[in-house]
């Protein structure tokens, strides 16, 4: 280094400017490369989702403590109040999901050359088509998140969607985003437990229903499907993208068991079911099963690729959350929440690579026309 540069660097003001530019540049690059597609500072300054700043640390600690599960058993019956547990989970991670993944919290079957965003919309429109949604119809979106799917679906079909989510913070985000997208007249959002649909909607009947990667949170699939059955008109269709173990899952293979346990742990699931479980549940609820199909078998790009592509960026984000937490900008516990999401991502990727798990096993069912007489 030349003498002039060396002496300039000894100047306190030059040091300040160089340091400032370095830190700002570093953070800018980290943010640019990170999982976050929007400004993460906006949310982590005050709180994470619905959770007040001082509660994040306690929230993630108690979440982690909960998962001292036995291999292969999930947390199942030990979840005494699943909705509270799931609500806490979504309070912790909604901002991470939205800023890192987008407004739609699900995976998609993707063709080669297709953008991530286009594949997400195609996945959503496909489920709407499977229940025949069109103008003049009103269907329910079970576990609607912050409403990414409902906005894309109403724009594509002209039909009306009523979303339900357990998480109050998501209701607020969804309302804001629906307004910004100019689709308020075609959307409605309700906070409530989808295990209690008939109570929430008090005799209201819908022209169809769909669930995108949400029914996996139900403490009992038959009980959920029965609730959906209650709020549908006879002849209406219900389609769900379920998170399921595939036929390749071997309960005697420790790797398989650990991966599936990891998926349950990182995503607040009571267990990971099979397509046979769902078909049985649909029949027990009174539905006619129209067809089942694993959308993970479609497309040239595996669904888990989107997470793999973001891996390096996710590690940078991890460092960033640590720095933000250290300087007191993000609440204590923020990095632990991100650690949980990283672990979840690794197990989801493994589950996809081993083809033992699918997050998009489609099941389409119909409430029989004659059901009106049975119900009456
Ligand atoms: C993985 S997210 C999917 C969100 C949305 N379907 C999407 O694709 O963007 C699961 C959603 O299910 C909701 N959920 C989970 N359990 C629920 C329950 N018992 N009642 C209502 N919503 C629930 C969560 O609040 C969350 O919005």
TrEMBL record:
Transmembrane segments: 14-35
GO molecular function, one term: S-adenosylmethionine-dependent methyltransferase activity
GO terms of biological process kind: methylation; steroid biosynthetic process
Membrane-related topology note: Single-pass membrane protein
Signal peptide (UniProt feature, chain positions): none
Predominant localisation class: membrane
Its EC number(s): 2.1.1.-
Broadest EC class assigned to this enzyme: transferase
Cell compartment(s), UniProt: Microsome membrane
InterPro entries per the UniProt record, alphabetical: Methyltransf_11, MeTrfase_SMT, SAM-dependent_MTases_sf, Sterol_MeTrfase_C
CDD domains for the chain: AdoMet_MTases (cd02440)
Superkingdom of origin: Eukaryota
Domain SAM-dependent methyltransferase Erg6/SMT-type intervals: 89-368
Keywords: Endoplasmic reticulum, Lipid biosynthesis, Lipid metabolism, Membrane, Methyltransferase, Microsome, S-adenosyl-L-methionine, Transferase, Transmembrane, Transmembrane helix
Family: Belongs to the class I-like SAM-binding methyltransferase superfamily. Erg6/SMT family.
Protein name: Methyltransferase
Organism field: Ostreococcus tauri (Marine green alga)
């Amino acid at each position: 280094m030349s003498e002039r540069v060396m002496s300039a660097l000894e100047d306190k003001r030059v040091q300040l400017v160089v340091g400032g530019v370095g830190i700002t540049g570093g953070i800018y690059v980290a943010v640019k490369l990170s999982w976050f597609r929007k400004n993460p500072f906006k949310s982590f300054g005050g709180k994470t989702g619905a959770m007040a700043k001082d509660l994040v640390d306690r929230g993630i600690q108690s979440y982690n403590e909960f998962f001292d599960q036995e291999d292969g058993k999930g947390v199942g019956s030990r979840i005494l109040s699943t909705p509270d547990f799931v609500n806490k989970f979504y309070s912790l991670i909604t901002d991470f999901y939205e800023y890192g993944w987008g407004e739609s919290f699900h995976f998609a079957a993707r063709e080669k050359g297709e953008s991530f965003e286009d594949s997400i919309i195609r996945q959503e429109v496909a489920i709407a088509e499977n229940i025949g949604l069109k103008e003049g119809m009103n269907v329910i979106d079970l576990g609607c998140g912050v409403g990414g799917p409902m906005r894309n679906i109403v724009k594509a079909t002209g039909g009306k969607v009523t979303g339900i989510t357990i998480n109050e913070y998501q209701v607020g985000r969804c309302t804001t985003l629906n307004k910004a997208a100019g689709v308020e007249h075609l959307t409605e959002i309700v906070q409530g437990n989808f295990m209690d649909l008939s109570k929430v909607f008090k005799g209201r009947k819908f022209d169809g229903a769909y669930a995108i990667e949400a029914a996996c949170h139900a403490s009992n699939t038959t009980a959920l499907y029965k609730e959906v059955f209650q709020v549908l008109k006879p002849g209406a269709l219900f389609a769900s993208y379920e998170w399921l173990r595939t036929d390749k899952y071997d309960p005697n293979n420790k790797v398989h068991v650990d991966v599936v346990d990891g998926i349950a742990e990182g995503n607040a699931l009571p267990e990971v079911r099979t397509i046979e479980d769902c078909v049985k549940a649909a029949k027990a609820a009174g539905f006619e099963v129209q067809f089942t199909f694993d959308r993970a078998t479609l497309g040239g790009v595996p669904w888990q690729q989107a997470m793999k592509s973001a891996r390096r960026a996710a590690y940078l984000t991890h460092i960033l959350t640590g720095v933000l937490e250290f300087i007191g900008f993000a609440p204590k516990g923020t990095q632990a929440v991100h650690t949980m999401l990283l672990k979840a991502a690794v197990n989801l990727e493994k589950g996809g690579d081993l083809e033992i798990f699918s997050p998009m096993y489609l099941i389409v069912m119909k409430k029989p026309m004659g059901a009106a007489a049975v119900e009456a």
